Amino acid sequence: MEQLDAHRIRENLRELSREPHLASSPRDEDLVxxxxxxxxxxxxxLDSAEASTYEVLLSxxxxxQPNVVDIVGPxxxxxxxxxxxxENVTGEQGGPDVVQPYAAYAPSGTPQGLLVYANRxxxxxxxxxxxxxxxxxxxxxxxxxxxxxxGAKAVNAAKHGIAGVLVYTDPADINDxxxxxxxxxxxxxxxxxxxxxxxxxxxxxxxPLTPYLPAVxxxxxxxxxxxxxxxxxxxxxxxxxxxxxxxxNLNGTLxxxxxxxxxxxxxxxxxxxxxxxxxxxxxxxxxxVYNRLExxxxxxxxxxxxxxxxxxxxxxxxxxxxxxxxxxxxxxHPALPLPPPSPAPPAHLSLSSGSLPLFLWPDRYVLxxxxxxxxxxxxxxPSSGTAILLELSRVLGTLLKKGTWRPRRSIVxxxxxxxxxxxxxxxxxxxxxxxxxxxxxxxxxxxISVFANATLRVQGTPPVQxxxxxxxxxxxxxxxxxxxxxxxxxRYFNRSSPVYGLVPSLGxxxxxxxxxxxxxxxxxxxxxxxxxxxxxxTSARIYPTYHTAFDTFDYVxxxxxxxxxxHQAVARTAGSVILRLSDSFFLPLKVSDYSExxxxxxxxxxxxxxxxxxxxxxxxxxLVTAVEKFEAEAAALGQRISTLQKGSPDPLQVRMLNDQLxxxxxxxxNPRAFPEERYYSHVLWAPRTGSVVTxxxxxxxxxxxxxxxxxxxxxxxxxxxxxxxxTALEGAAATLRPVADL
Length: 742
Description:
Blueprint: H1 6-16, H2 26-39, E1 48-60, E2 68-72, E3 78-81, E4 103-104, E5 112-113, E6 115-117, H3 123-131, E7 140-144, H4 150-159, E8 164-168, H5 171-174, E9 199-200, E10 235-237, H6 240-247, E11 284-288, E12 292-305, E13 365-371, H7 383-402, E14 410-416, H8 424-430, H9 433-439, E15 440-445, E16 455-460, H10 465-473, H11 485-492, E17 494-497, E18 501-504, H12 515-521, E19 526-532, H13 553-560, H14 565-583, H15 594-608, H16 610-615, H17 621-645, H18 651-663, H19 696-705, H20 713-736
Parallel strand pairs: 4-9, 6-7, 7-8, 8-10, 13-14, 13-15, 15-19
Antiparallel strand pairs: 1-12, 2-3, 2-11, 5-11, 12-14, 16-19, 17-18
Helix pairs in contact: 1-7, 7-14, 10-14, 15-17, 17-20, 19-20
């Protein structure tokens, strides 16, 4: 922990964010080589490092024909144009490698029509406009970020006949209402008026042409005409200074109070501009988008530390068939010297290729990853995470090269490519799924490592809670005082646990970063670690310069984390978690912590859905029984582990118990549970569209069936989703029973 150096993290970040590194760009490839160089360093490198390349479909704006948003007067002439680029306030926003703001995967086109304001672009927002008597056909919708996903704004708009969509960031949502240049970067951490949030508008994750298949040359590719998940209409993001010009001149009914923002005027709904404004009343907005799709090569980089024990064959070290792997185990035999680091295997035998022979690697992996690509300089997103990745691997690599340490289980460090376009690199990696599902203990994600410098924030599945709590109790929090990270964390985010009392609260994992394919597709226990804001001091939905050209090294150095103590705290937390997962004799995954989640889901179903289900002769009895079975088996497994920890257990007994802990998460997968979704198989953490916070499939099905008659297909789906959950819970309980108990 002491060797994790804040100054080195700072210098890593300076180098990583020195130039824009959009996925597949020359600078992105330079960073691939930088990672390989660091991980092959003779003094601080790892056992091996390799890059694997995928050919994936990406989306870029045309350099020859930039995207433009114009106001067209009654005679057809352009009377006003929105800014095409962000203001060059520090000399870093105007370079040739700064990509123009755009909506990735939005189709090209030049729609033109009267402007309407549609709040956040949710389905209910467009219905509200129709309720107000506004004809939406052929209009251009101005929407603001938040509420629903980027791509959903365009999908929802197209359903109502809207021709094009504009998206902006309202100062009320990200700047605490501040909007003047002297109140924003470079004078504070707030977003300048010209700032534009770029992003992917693709609905799914992974390469669009090869769903469920790795994007390698031999894989089948979907015909471009049959690709789903792209926005159906031209879409373009703009800055809030341009949004102010549009929105503050709109005609029509006053927007609802919850739709108002901080642009300094009363927001109206449209359509069209008011007669006493800056533009003629019958002026229209033209959105010209010239995005193009391109097949590009994008690389993942893997750095590997081989584990010392837990080899592939069940005979393992205590029988000494391979005594050199005995160092570090807890058998009664003397530790023998470790083998010297071996060269990286040839490419066709790589971990990433899915064809590595079992005997080359101890067969339990702890994965730690972050993406490498950014929209522009990406100092916060993602380079704050990569800076920590490099420092953690340097410290562990140095111990490795000195011969003073080797983990029980293998550690795999990963730098994913093309995350910003839809988690592409990590998803392609997980599509070689058999090996990962069978052998991965957990996945640790550190993407944006520091949103702000107030407190730790962790999202994860319940079994990882205990290992994070244990780690954070032993690490000092940055800042004055002598609080641990745990004690500081509990001041900002906490919940009352029926088992533990007041504890820090873990968030659940959605699909916002590279943990998504690991938890939703492969069922691998996962977590995401970062430092974040004091919510009582800001209403920002995310750090203000997110996905803009103002996310630079100086922004982090001056405003987010001067001194880099929060970066160091995240590095120490993540490093401690890695060591606990890779070195502990018994895996520190506490499956009984799932019982609280299941019990809360059950209680929500009983309280909020029970009467409705009863009306349609659907009983929650089997679900109650299944939850109780899980609780009993989880408690019994915990007791068996506690008993074994007091003695000198046979390593094979420990191996069996560790496999039960590792594989529990997989039992919640059902690849047929959500046919309308892609990659979502986890019946506890799939997207929930229903309002009841319970098992997502049950919540969603009840929401759709609520106003239909008994016996309808919608109510049959409710019964199916209930059966899916019950079966998953029964399978989970069975997995936790003693292995010999069939």
